[in-house]
Amino acid sequence: MGGANWSYRHGQGTGVAFLAFSPLGHGWLVDDFECKYPDGFAPDDFRRTGNSSHRLTIVLTIRLNSVIAVPKFQGENFYKIKAIVDEIKKLATQKECTVAEIALAWVAAQGLISIPSTTKASRLEENWRSRDIALKAMRKMVDDAKPVVERFSAIFQSMVGHWIYTLLTAVAVL
Questions:
Q1: Fewer CB within a 10 Å sphere, N or C end of the chain?
Q2: How far is it, in rounded angstroms, from Cα 138 to Cα 97?
Q3: If 0-12 CB within 10 Å is exposed, 13-18 middle and 19+ buried, where does residue 133 land?
Q4: Cβ atoms of 28 and 22 closer than 8 Å
Q5: Where is the NADP-dependent oxidoreductase domain positioned along the sequence (predicted)?
């Protein structure tokens, strides 16, 4: 966690933009999140198995093909995060908006850029509406909630705070 915060603060004031990866929490932060318990994900879903094959294309393409534990979706962590999401749902109900709108508004309020993926026009409209949400009530909720669980496997946690330096160095060389 400290590494991620350091990277973000380090980039402020330097003209470096930060892109929020998975601003809707791999599906957690939508109104119709289908999974109600840790083993409820499909057998081949990375949130259950940890198998990951993501592509990140900015300047370089990094391919990860390995078994990677995703602690935030496993065991008791699942229920801890679900409790936080339930609080966000209450806030969304009070504000008469969706959980996704709250999540995207929060990301924007932190000065981050989000590019949520969607295949539906209705989701695109929902994402766009997030620009109109004020989030004063969410500050205490977030402060009370963090940190709840480990977000990354040990190998990825060791990279937090370091990968951005490597990426920026690669961009500078080009």
A1: C
A2: 14
A3: buried
A4: no
A5: 12-137
Token pair of 35 as six digits: 């999974």
DSSP structure string for the chain:
-HHHHHHHHHHTTTT---EESSTTGGGTTSTT---SSGGGS-TT-HHHH-EE--EEESSSEEE--EE---GGGSHHHHHHHHHHHHHHHHHHHHHTS-HHHHHHHHHHHTT-EE----S-HHHHHHHHHGGG---TTHHHHHHHH-S-S--S-HHHHTTTTTHHHHHHHHHHH-
Residue 112: count of CB within 10 angstroms of its CB: 15
Q: Is 88 exposed, middle or buried (0-12, 13-18, 19+ CB in 10 A)?
A: buried
Q: What is the pTM of this model?
A: 0.65
The tokens describing 160, both together, are 């937090």
* pLDDT computed for residue 6 by the predictor: 46
Kindly state the average pLDDT of the residues 55-69: 40
Q: Where are the domains of the chain?
A: 21-33+70-171
